[in-house]
Every structure is written in C-alpha cells, then in structure tokens.
Amino acid sequence: MKNVFFRGSFVSLVALLPLAPVVHAQIVPSLTADTGVHASLDASANADGGGAFVITHTNAQAMLSGNSSAQTTTNARASLGSSSSATLHTHAAALVASDTNVSSVTLSPQKVTLSYKEPAKLFGFIGVWVPVSVSVGATGTTTVAYPWYSFLMSTNQAALTIRAQAAVDKEMVAASSSNRLSANMQTRVLDSLHAVLSSEANIGATTSTSTQ
C-alpha cells in the first residue's frame, strides 16, 4: 500500500514539474512589477536614500516611453560612465526592454540583482528554462540562486558562478572603499552580469539544440 501511494505521488510530481519553471518565471516578475512605475519618478532615491529600485518589463516600457532618445542612447551603453541615478535607471530599463530573458533588475547602493532565464535539463534530458537570480553586494561578493526545484535538474550553476564572480571582480577594482555601490558601479556590475548571463544562456541553448 505504501509503495502504491509513493508511486502515485511521484508520478503526480513528475507530471507537474515541467510546468513549474514556466509558472515560476511568470510569477516572479509580477511580485515586483507594481513597485517600479511610480518609483521611477524618484530618480534620486537609489543614489541618496539607498532604497531598492526594481525594474521589470512592465515598468521598463513605461520609463522609456517618456524619453524618446533614452532607448537609443542606453542601448548603445552610452551611460556607462555616468554617476547619475536617473541615467542608471534609464540604462537598466533599456537593458530589460531589449532582452526577453531578463525577468527583473533590482538596484541599490547595497546590492545589484539581475534575474535571468537560463537553460537547464530536467532529469538530465528535458530542456527547460528556469529563473536564475545573480546578486552582487557592495563588497563584491556574488551569489547565484537557482529555484528550489533545481536539484532535479542539471544546470550550469558552477560555471555561471565562477564567470559571474570573475566579471564582477574586474569591475570592483575601480570601486571605492565605502560599502556602497555608486550609480556608476551599479551600471558596470549590471552590464557585467548581463554579459555573463546572456552568454551562458546562448551557450546552453546552442548545446541543447545540437544534442537534440
């Protein structure tokens, strides 16, 4: 009887798991989407007050629609050297709007977090995309977080962690000794993380396609 119950529970779990990454990827952005549209009006909050500023696809479009020249400028990464918090937000909004794999960006002087969809293999052979969050603290420590169900998958977490930390270390050489990330450093860290995550996603997608 116990074996029948266990077998039935396992079959139910297996049936639901392929849907979990999709459901999770849809829910995560919605938890923060409402915080950004009005917050974007306070361009100095991030630099001066230290509060977290969240950008998703929803409020990224709202931010960019009010500045017709911002998208061209920021897509060219022209804001990289600016310390303006408003420019940082516009730059981040353009990055989010230009890449559908980005779920959200969270900016603050204490931490920068980029949530990105990365390929994985459920049970080692079923191709799925999962939301991965990479956070960088003011001291330069990088943390890569996969969803709870990732233990059922083969992922590139180890390689991603090494590459992300190496990229951040290069940028943090220019950081000040204070335990705060300037708007300029937040931009540099964000761009570094995006470069690593998008590269890993492309490699994973190419590998997955070639093995099918």
What are the defining features of this structure?
212 residues, 6 strands, 49% helix, globular, disordered N terminus
Write structural notes for this entry:
- With 212 residues, the protein is of the alpha+beta class.
- The chain has one domain (20-210).
- Helices cover 49% and strands 19% of the residues.
- The chain has helices at residues 2-16, 20-30, 45-49, 57-65, 70-75, 85-98, 157-172, 183-210; strands at 53-56, 102-107, 111-122, 126-137, 142-145, 153-154.
- Strands 1, 2, 3, 4, 5 and 6 form a 6-stranded antiparallel β-sheet that branches.
- α6 (85-98) runs parallel beside α8.
- The radius of gyration is 19 Å and the shape is globular.
- The chain starts with a helix and ends with a helix.
- Mean pLDDT is 75; it is low at 2-49 and 68-83.
The tally of helices reads 8
Helix coverage percent: 40-55%
The arrangement of helices and strands along the chain is: HHHEHHHEEEEEHH
Low-confidence parts lasting 5 or more residues at pLDDT below 50? 2-49, 68-83
Number of domains: 1
The radius of gyration computed from the alpha-carbon positions, rounded to a whole number of angstroms, is 19 Å
Number of strands: 6
Beta-strand percentage range: 15-25%
Largest sheet: 6 strands, antiparallel
Distance between the termini: 39 Å
| Overall geometry | globular
* Average pLDDT number: 75
- SS-derived structural category: alpha+beta
